[in-house]
Amino acid sequence: SVRVDELTIIDILTRRSYSQRREIAFEYEKRSKKDMITALKGALSGSLEAVILGLMKSTAQYDASEIKGSIKGLGTDEETLIEMVCSRSAEELVEIKRVYKELFKKELEKDVAGDTSGDFRSLLLALAKRDEPSNIVDYEKIDQDARALYEAGVKRKGTDVATWITIMSERSVPHLQKVFDRYKSYSPYDMQESIRKEVKGDLEKSFLTLVECFENKQQYFANRLSEAMKGKSAKEKVVTRIVVSRCEVDLMKIRTEFKKLNQKSLYQTITETLKETIRRSC
């Protein structure tokens, strides 16, 4: 059997941008008359295969495939679905939906709707429907929205989840940051504490992911990475997904946030907890 030079594959493909990797694949096919993705699948396995094949996709293709993977087959991987939908901006989701339809010949919203239920489904669909990325801050509405969030939750018995969904899916990020700040003048708890008190399960995780990302998205990913590498059983899939999906988006900023949180670099933490593979992709 032919020995696979994994280090060379890692070295070449992790040091290039996505467009350069596509050019390499094109040249490879011209020279060898073989498809490079198929060759990589045959040569690699396990975590290394997951990282390298992930890097051969565009960011939107990778994200769309991860969403598809989380709802394919028996049972739903809610953790992945929440991370992928609730942490992506309106702009990113527009592109993910387009690519999802291209790749799987199905509407992302329909697949998500068929695999989820209740308020959890309503929230994910409201986020997936956002079309217009905007940075508009409606100063007239800041106080109104803050009060509405308070009156729909902490102030009353039970939670008017529909109001929370509307405000959090229909306002811009800079607007919501101001709303959450104003919210503290109405509620004895901040928005994250209020979510923990008011809702549970997947809905709680989804709202928390949203609010964490509205406040500081890179810190959210740094937290996810820290959690995934705590304890004895490191969650390689989570680490792979974040590193691969954000490597051309904001991985440098995530690394900075990670170091602030852990007083140790992401590179060093991965070296100590995971295999060679993922470390070299950083």
Automatic annotation (TrEMBL):
The keyword Ligase does not apply. Keywords: Annexin, Calcium, Calcium/phospholipid-binding, Repeat. One of its GO terms (molecular function) is calcium ion binding. One of its GO terms (biological process) is negative regulation of coagulation. Pfam families: Annexin (PF00191). InterPro entries: Annexin (IPR001464), Annexin_repeat (IPR018502), Annexin_repeat_CS (IPR018252), Annexin_sf (IPR037104), ANX5 (IPR002392). One of its GO terms (cellular component) is vesicle membrane. Transmembrane segments: none annotated. Belongs to the annexin family. A pair of annexin repeats may form one binding site for calcium and phospholipid. This is Annexin. It comes from Oncorhynchus tshawytscha (Chinook salmon).
